[in-house]
Amino acid sequence: MSVKTNTKIYKYFAFLLLVAALNIHTPVANTQTIFREQLVVGASGLPIPRFVSLSANEANLRTGPNQQYPILWVFVRRGTPLEVTAEYGAWRRVRDVDGTVGWMHSALLSGTRTALFTGTLRTLFADPSINAATVLRAEAGVLGTIETCVSGWCKLNVHGREGWLPQEHFWGTYSNESFE
Fold first, then answer.
1. Residues 6+ apart with CB under 8 A from 10
2. Which of 26, 45, 95, 126 could form a disulfide with 133 if both were Cys (CB 3.0 to 4.6 A apart)?
């Protein structure tokens, strides 16, 4: 083998190691426990980790932080909540509800907080209490906009109807995260 061939092989293995490092898979459940314990500020001046939402109807998730990297997945639903876990220039490493990790350009993301209903049929209540009147029932996969979160409950807007839902019934916030 020539030196040139060895160099190509080493570069190829280095590339594979980089791709593997950028696609480290951490179960979603683990992200719930790290909220604010490992908080850092990214180059954007915003905290990492944090939740954002998809601002485009279609967006490519790539294996690396550049358009030259292969497309890993294509999101086709505006408002999908994503967790930002790293930043590199204008690129954000994001994780979805299923734990898929990849890179997306920041222009495709919004600071609007959204919720993706998980599990079984979920009930939104008029007040933050399971004894409150029912506002609506929604199946897993329904999206809503998060208006506020307090004491483990979040007020959501789902297609113009507002109601309260326990944080553990959707994906898009950290456990016991509070904000207005």
1. none
2. 126
Task: Confirm whether 3-112 and 115-171 share one CATH topology.
Answer: yes
pLDDT tens for 107-165 read: 999 999 999 999 999 999 999 999 999 999 999 999 999 999 999 999 999 999 999 99
**If we measure between CA atoms, which residue out of 78, 150, 152, 86 comes closest to residue 116?**
78
How far apart are alpha carbons 173 and 97 in whole angstroms?
11
115 contacts 98 by C-beta, under 8 angstroms: no
The string of pLDDT tens digits covering residues 19-65 is 444 444 333 333 343 444 567 998 889 999 999 999 999 999 999 99
The CATH fold assigned to 3-112 is: SH3 type barrels. (2.30.30)
pLDDT more than 90, % of the chain: 73
Q: Give the fold, CATH level 3, of 115-171.
A: SH3 type barrels. (2.30.30)
What SS3 class is residue 28? helix
Read off the pTM: 0.78
Domain ranges of the chain: 3-112, 115-171
Q: Average the pLDDT over 69-85 and give the result.
A: 97
